[in-house]
Amino acid sequence: MNQEQPPVQRTRRRKKSHGPLIALSILAAGIMVSGTVLFTQLQDSPNQEATISGSKLPEYTISVRPLGPDDHVRGNPNAPIVIVEYSDFECPACKFFHQVMTNVMKDYGKDGQVAWVYRHLPVEQLHQKAWHEAMATECVAELGGNDAFWTMADLIFENTSSNDGLDLNLLPEFAEQAGVSRADYEFCMADERMRPKVEEDYQEALERGGAQGTPHNIIIAGGEQLPISGAVEYTQMRQYIELIYQQVVRGQVPTN
Asked: Distance of alpha carbon 142 from its chain centroid, rounded?
């Protein structure tokens, strides 16, 4: 299999952190799941279970931007735990993880414990349709708001078989289902005015988020940021959220 290099050079820097997340006795120290779609190697096993292990923060300086008015958020934006996902609509691991996060929000979103933020990381070397789909969701968001964005995103993941499996002719229909005018949607797509928004997410994921593949997630809690890469299983994601909520949000640190 041919290996492809990411278009942006990434650097690793050691981070000395004294923030709340250092109190965790069990950390996902840069979890890389075998189901992750890596920039350098495509692997189509998105449901491999991650291992939560280690006792120190990853050796990345993670510093993605805080939530802003242009972000797409499910749940309470002021939740004590915010999961920022960088994703690709044609990535099979992302399709799997989208359902995982949907289930996470059913359990933790209704009580305001967790917020889910979607940002874009379309890997054009592997998925030629992903950029178009990302811009499509941004057009729908501009025209219809936050709820319309999530409806559009859900429809894309529900209908694609991944790896460029979606018929792009369906996107205007999805936009209408999300509640926006087809004519307005097509006008937005024609001038590609959403490309800079997608590009901003893409560059941030690589340069500031330590991303090496999709999906790539940054968990923000207690003023700290911690990366978890890969299509983490639901049970593992739930375990990790519980650990952070207990030890960071509530401040209950084990003594052993």
From this structure: 20
